[in-house]
Each structure stands twice: as C-alpha cells, then as structure tokens.
Description:
The complex is a heterotetramer. Chain A is mostly beta strands. Chain A has one domain: CATH 2.40.50.100. Chain A is built from no helices and 8 strands. Chain A has strands spanning about 1-10, 20-25, 30-35, 40-45, 50, 55-60, 70, 75-85. In chain A, a hairpin with a 4-residue loop joins strand 4 (about 40-45) and strand 5 (about 50). The relative contact order of chain A is 0.27. By secondary structure, chain B is an alpha/beta fold. Chain B has 2 domains: about 15-200, Thiamin diphosphate (ThDP)-binding fold, Pyr/PP domains (Rossmann fold, 3-Layer(aba) Sandwich); about 210-340, Rossmann fold, CATH 3.40.50. Helices cover about 35% and strands about 20% of the residues of chain B. Chain B contains 12 helices and 15 strands. Chain B has helices spanning about 20-35, 60-65, 75-85, 105-115, 115-120, 150-155, 165-180, 225-240, 260-270, 285-295, 320, 325-339; strands spanning about 5, 15-20, 40-45, 70, 90-95, 130-135, 160, 185-190, 195-200, 210-215, 220-225, 245-250, 250-255, 270-280, 305-310. Chain B has a 5-stranded mixed beta sheet with strand order 10-12-11-14-15, with helices on both faces. Chain B is globular, with a radius of gyration of 20 Å. Chain C is α/β, with parallel strands linked by helices. Chain C has a single domain, classed as Alpha/Beta hydrolase fold, catalytic domain (Rossmann fold). Chain C has 8 helices and 8 strands, in the order E-E-E-H-H-E-H-E-H-E-H-H-E-H-E-H. In chain C, strands 1-2-4-3-5-6-7-8 form an 8-stranded mixed beta sheet, with helices on both faces. In chain C, strand 1 (about 1-5) and strand 2 (about 10-15) form a beta hairpin. Classes of the chains: A mainly beta, B alpha/beta, C alpha/beta, D alpha/beta. The interface between B and D is large, with 40 and 45 residues. Strand 1 of chain A pairs antiparallel with strand 1 of chain B, so a sheet runs across the interface.
Amino acid sequence: xxxxxxxxxxxxxxxxxxxxxxxxxxxxxxxxxxxxxxxxxxxxxxxxxxxxxxxxxxxxxxxxxxxxxxxxxxxxxxxxxxxxxxxxxxxxxxxxxxxxxxxxxxxxxxxxx
Amino acid sequence: xxxxxxxxxxxxxxxxxxxxxxxxxxxxxxxxxxxxxxxxxxxxxxxxxxxxxxxxxxxxxxxxxxxxxxxxxxxxxxxxxxxxxxxxxxxxxxxxxxxxxxxxxxxxxxxxxxxxxxxxxxxxxxxxxxxxxxxxxxxxxxxxxxxxxxxxxxxxxxxxxxxxxxxxxxxxxxxxxxxxxxxxxxxxxxxxxxxxxxxxxxxxxxxxxxxxxxxxxxxxxxxxxxxxxxxxxxxxxxxxxxxxxxxxxxxxxxxxxxxxxxxxxxxxxxxxxxxxxxxxxxxxxxxxxxxxxxxxxxxxxxxxxxxxxxxxxxxxxxxxxxxxxxxxxxxxxxxxxxx
Amino acid sequence: xxxxxxxxxxxxxxxxxxxxxxxxxxxxxxxxxxxxxxxxxxxxxxxxxxxxxxxxxxxxxxxxxxxxxxxxxxxxxxxxxxxxxxxxxxxxxxxxxxxxxxxxxxxxxxxxxxxxxxxxxxxxxxxxxxxxxxxxxxxxxxxxxxxxxxxxxxxxxxxxxxxxxxxxxxxxxxxxxxxxxxxxxxxxxxxxxxxxxxxxxxxxxxxxxxxxxxxxxxxxxxxxxxxxxxxxxxxxxxxxxxx
Amino acid sequence: xxxxxxxxxxxxxxxxxxxxxxxxxxxxxxxxxxxxxxxxxxxxxxxxxxxxxxxxxxxxxxxxxxxxxxxxxxxxxxxxxxxxxxxxxxxxxxxxxxxxxxxxxxxxxxxxxxxxxxxxxxxxxxxxxxxxxxxxxxxxxxxxxxxxxxxxxxxxxxxxxxxxxxxxxxxxxxxxxxxxxxxxxxxxxxxxxxxxxxxxxxxxxxxxxxxxxxxxxxxxxxxxxxxxxxxxxxxxxxxxxxxxxxxxxxxxxxxxxxxxxxxxxxxxxxxxxxxxxxxxxxxxxxxxxxxxxxxxxxxxxxxxxxxxxxxxxxxxxxxxxxxxxxxxxxxxxxxxxxxxxxxxx
Lengths: 113, 339, 243, 345
C-alpha cells in the first residue's frame, strides 16, 4: 500500500451559502481518523454543522484556523490516505503486465549511410 | 448529511502529480465540468458506479446528477441525445462503454453528429466529445478490443484523437471538449493503468499536431494510442543494435499532421507505421500515402505497415499473436534498412 | 419513518438504533423553531455521539416543521398539541420513558412534556433556553415584521428551503397563546440547562436552573446558533444522561 | 397481469407438475449452481480472465429452456445463459470455453446444438430470433425461436424493432426477458420506463406475461404456453421472468459501489433452488435421499465440466485466419504467411 495526499474542499452546505466559519477542529495534524469520524465544526449564518471525515487517513494539513471564514470550494483539510498499489482491472479483461525486458528474436543491422 | 468533496482541479497551472491515465482523464473531466457549466457527462454506468474503468469516479457526487448521469443501455439513443442536447446549448461528453458498442450508435455518429453542422450550414454546431474506451491488449471479451479509428477518420465532419500516456490524455481531452466540433476521443484501455508523473497543463499544440516522443536519425516509427509505448520499446531495443529510431506519436487521427510526418521522415528517410487495427484500409495506408506524397524523393525505402491482421479481434490467448509484436516491428525496420 | 398519530397531523421521525445498545432509555431530541431534526441535531453531529454511547435516538420533525405536516391554523400549535404528538409517538414506539434533550423551542416543549407526562421523562436537558418569553406579544403582530429578537429569528428561518412561513407564523402564534411561566417546574426530574455564553435568547437560564434544582453549564464563546454543535455541549449531556 | 411488486414473493408450489418434470428441473438447476460455483473459483485461480454468474437465475433459465424442443427449436442466447444451455443439452465444456477466452462465441457446434453463439452485444441477437422464426415459417417447419435478453437490453432499439417485426410477420418466437433488476450498475427504475417489460408487448399487439422468475414451475408453464402458441401459428409472446442478479455483474465488478446488499440478501434467501427443493419435498416428488443422490451427481458433472474446460488446449494461432471467410483471399493468405514467418511461437 502506498500513501497519497488528498485535499478536500469546503462543500456547499446547502441553501446557497457561499462561506462558513470554522468553529472548532475536532482533529489535529497527525491524527489518524476513521471515515465518518467528526472532523470539523463549522457555522453558516443559519446553522452549526459537524462535518464527518470523508476518508480514513492521517491528517496532514488543516487549511483554516478556528474562527476563519472559508469560502465554499476552498481547501479545508488534506489527508494522507492509503491507496492500492495494484491497479484494479475494469469490468472486463486483465491489467496488462509489463515485461521488464521486452523479448525479441530479431537483431538489426545498422545502415551504412 | 454534509459530506466533504474531494478537491477539484489543481489550483496551480502546470502542477505535476503522479496519476494513471484513468485518473488523468478524470482530472480533465473535473476541470471541464468546473470551468464550463454546459458540460454534461453521461453514458452507461458513468454515474453511480463511476464508469467501468473508474474514469468518471466521483464526478456525479461532485457535480450532481444533473450533469453526470447514467443512461439506459442504448448506444444509439446516447449519441442521438447528445445531438439534441447540443442543439439546446449544452456541451455533451457522452461515453460509449466499449469500442465494439459504438457500432450500434454508428447511425447517429455518422449520419447525425458528424454532419449536423454541415447540414444546417453552421447553425447547429455539435460540440460533442465521444469518449470511447478503445483498442485491445487486455484480454477482454468480444467487442471490447476493437480499433475504429479508420471508420471515424473516414467520416467527414468528425475529428479523431487517441492519447498515448496520462499527460497526453489530460491535455487532449481538454482540447477535445473545448472544441466546437465533434471529436471521437479514443482511450487506449491497455494504458489506463499506466501511472507516471503528469504535468497538468493547458494544451499548447493546436488540434491536429503530432509530437516527437523520441528522436532518432535512422527511421521514424509512427503510432498512436498504446502502440506508441510499443514503438518506444522497439526504439530502445534498436538502439542496442546501433539503430536510432525516431518515435512519432500521431495523436490526432483526423486531422492528420501531414507536415509533422514530412518533417520527421524527410530527415530519417525511413518510416514504419504501427497500428492495432486490421491492415486493409487501415489508417496506416493514409499515413503511408501522406509520407509518399511529401517525401517521395527523400525515402530510402517504401513505407512499411505493421498492423493487426484482417481478422476479427481474437479471444485472450491469441491476442498477443494478433497485435503488432516487437519482432514484427523490428523486421519492418530491417526491411527499410536493407531496401 | 412517519406516523399518523393524532389524526390531524402526520409526523415524520427518525428512530436510530445504536450498533450496541447500552440498555439505557432512548434519547428524544427536540429541535428548535424553524429547524428540523436533521438540521438541528443531525448536521450538528448528535446522533453519532449518542449512538456511539449506545443510546437509541428518537428525533421527530415537530408539527409545522421539516417533513411533518404543516397546518396553517394557529390553534393547531398550542403546546399541548406538541405534547400529545410526543406522547403518542412514544406510545407508538412502545417506549416507556426517555431522556429528553430540547433546544430553544424544543426545550420549551420538553419542559411542557415533563410537566404533562412526568412518568415518561427520566431526565431533562434544556439547551439555548431561558425564562424570558420570546414569543410575548406575537399574538398581536405578524411575526417578522417587527425588529425584536424573535422577528430576527423568524425571518432567518422562514427563508430556509422547505419551510412554510405561514405555518411557522401560525406555530409562533399558537405557542404565544400559552405564555411560558417559571412555575410550576417539573418536579422530581433531574434537569440540566446548557447555553452559549453569548446566547441572548437564553438569558436567565442560570436562575431558571437554580429555581428547579438543576444544573447550568455555560459554553464559552458560543451563541444561540453555534452552541448546538459544540463538543462541550455534547459531553456535558452525555455525562448528565449517563447511568 | 401480476404487478412487479407482487411477483417474487413467498414460497412456490409444484403440486400441479409431474414429478419427472420437477426432478429434471432440480437436476439441471443443481448442476448449473455447482458449475457456476466452480467457474467463480476458476476465475479466482486465474484460469478464467472473468466470469458472469447466473446464480439466482437458474429457475428462470432452466424452467424456460426445459419447455423447448432441442430437436426442432432454436435458442438465441446472450452471454449469461449457462443454465439454459445446460438444460437445452449444449456441450458444456465447449460452452464454458468462452469464459476461458478460448473462443469468443464458445467452442460448441452452434448449428448442431441449435443454440446460437454466445453473444456479448446486448439485444443484438433478438432480431436474429425473429429472422430464424420467419425462416422457419417460410420453410414450413414448426420450430420456435427463443430470444433471450435482459432488462438492460430491453432499452436497445434492436429489441423493439424485433418485437415489431415479429408482430408484423406473426413469427413463432418467444421473447424471453430475464429481468434480473440490474444492468451492471443501473437498476430497473432507471432503465425501464413504465416499470414493466412484459407490458410493452401490448403496444406490438402481442401477449405479455410477467412471471416469478424464481418459480421454476411458473416459468415453465408460461414458456410452454408461449411455445405451444407459437408452434401452432399464434405468433410471438413476450415473457418477463422477474428475478435478481445476486452476484456482481461479473467477477470484476464491485456492487458495493452502487447497491445496497440488504436487498440482494433478501433475494439470496429466496433462492430458486431451495424454493424448488422445499416444494418437491412437500409435494412428495422426491425425498431427502433422492435429492442427496442428485446433489452428488450434479457436483460430479460440474467437476467434469470444470476439468474439461480448465484442461482444454488453447487454440493455435493459425486459427486467427481459418474462419474469416469460407473462401479465403490471396491477401489473407499472404497475412497468414506473415504470421507464420514473423509471429508463430
């Protein structure tokens, strides 16, 4: 398994709101959290919301301070998540395997010109 | 329930990230859906499932069911719907799940999509990009390994493109979807899992431009899609023997870069064109003719073609014997050297 | 889920069972004016906290709110109507008694439920709520047209998608017809009051807690809107409801 | 017509059927189930590149195919008709060869089996059935064409065109839709406008029958009636057998991405094989010891087919060129020589 950083942005919290205020982070950089664990508490003009974590992973960066106003679509948090090393086949067929040294039977003679 | 959405397109132009071709196409679709509210992505299993190769993974969640949606299983209707959507101001990016299932939609593609702009004297442009997982190499069932580029290239009004690696896939898709002409974007399935650093950059070359992937002076290998990779392997092996081969990724199969072909072959004097599709009336014939027309006096040997055979695409165990092999390409190179 | 319990009004409610039950009584969550179970409690992360603690959660959309019916006659919004909705819901679910957590208007109705049906309420939590009757005077005026604190609340929530301003106005008038009084207070039921330090609508909560022999906890830095999702609020409630 | 909501509930009864018939159903369904299990194992072992399971659809396939006459009828399958092929008497090593990717259409003799080549174009073979059936009438024969297709294929123009043709030509064809409720990731409600495939028959002036696809007796009765009608010159019938794809679309699929497995679990519990077993015991068509004997025979036969396909030789590369034409061309012969000189291992 390899790790990959994935950044999540502040989602549209509905009602056409364009921003939200970070009230309190429920995680710190370095924490390893599960999917759906409480991640951050944010407030819009109309309600307060706890956003659950969309992924299991290790928190690498929090992009906003508490009490900071974050526009919808701006980065909120970056996770390091485990990703599959082995590629998954599609609905049909096999993932082609790469030969380290392609086999050949034919040798070439360089041109004389 | 409030859910976080994975971040869309990279903020910085030119950022380099390691991606498979699947992911690179996914990134490009995100950029397109973000930048242009008229872009619609639809087809069989592209929504909830995220595509049978995960190319549209997460797009429906991010952009909603209005803009990324599953259709019933009917290829002709998918392409026919694209025509109507385009006439109502949308920029459709339909997917037909596999090359072989473009055939049921050929009527709409050839009789409708390709010529609506012409028929209406420019009043009804068709800014449609058909994403078509294409070509062979993954031991798939019947109708999942076809190469239709000659058919599309032969159809007036269609542009045709086949990327060869993740970076190309990214920028060529941006270019295709932004074009106001219909484009058939052929994704080489065998390279979907090819993972390498991708420069997420805006396209710089115009539509129709080829590119030199490797320079050499003794001959030019011309290919597109997954065969570019095979030609790079051949060039590497040829170098062991002291033969320096140039590899030209044609990219656009219509319009074809005649000037790019001439520039390379007039220098190297030898050309071998490699494709997966059957030989007869394949695109290799067009490429060979263009070279002959522009470089006749420069050529040290007739243009060679290494292609699939004139047989239906075979089942798994015979696939490696159908597709151009390294030895067949080397032998073709040898023929040009010895002519 | 929905239940048609009182003939006139169909109520939609959530009934969320924990993976592993602690065996304790369910928790009834009552949302505030113009809100819903999902918005007030769900989005603020309460069901997960309570379910993790092994508690079953019952969360209605009160009449006039969310996905429940929204009549527009103010006489259908007297506090006793809400109380009978809740008692009927508990009967329907076969639940003997619950811990009730109400916020704002939900706290007022929790208080009314505890007075009317003390046997059904084991513990009582009143959040964002004080003895000042916000709705005083609503009977005469049209809600939202003045500039009092309740008018501001009304205008904010009336604009939320899914809300019917006419039903909300009727709801406000109906409850205003029965002004809140500090006495009698629910006797023999352990009571906790919680409010944000900056919550003007909950002024006097500490005194009300003292009156009824309960506890008061203030959440630093929070106001009426953003106290709901606070970790401190959840923790003190969990502690209070434990065993 | 029963509604889709009321179909597919409860237990089944076989009291009205003959014990010989239900014993045959049981043998074929049991064998198909075991072969299916073996095939999934072969895919996991890397012998098959992929496999499409028929689990849960055995009643729909066996009940329908058992109503046909392999000496005079003709079946046009899709790619998920293993249990139908087995019931109809197709040589099963040759059938399973397609899943080992030995030959796309399978290696059984299509004309001798009177069972069309395995076809991956959904809806594509349905007009073929109409053509065969019209040909049969013109020839003066009394054979019936069986056109298999799924809920996904019902969206394809070919299927509608074929039904219309069949109505116009009064063709002796049975349009047999196995509605397994999932076209890869797309559920019925997003696939079938109006909710019923059987109801579409009405528009073409054909009888349309909705039947519980997990009730092998019900499927058989409906199909036998449609076959009788077609044979007697009464024309086509549309049968919709409502069942469920309890397995993934193929072994490479991950249904967790698009469906709630609780629903699939309900259908897994309503297993057509168990329904039949229980009904046979109740009706006195068999006892436990008889069924145990059949179980053992079925397992043995499934293992034989498994070993046969796993050990079958790979086709020689020269076969690339063998069947392209009846009369080959000079150019293709030249390409064959190229293959011989430059590719042959």
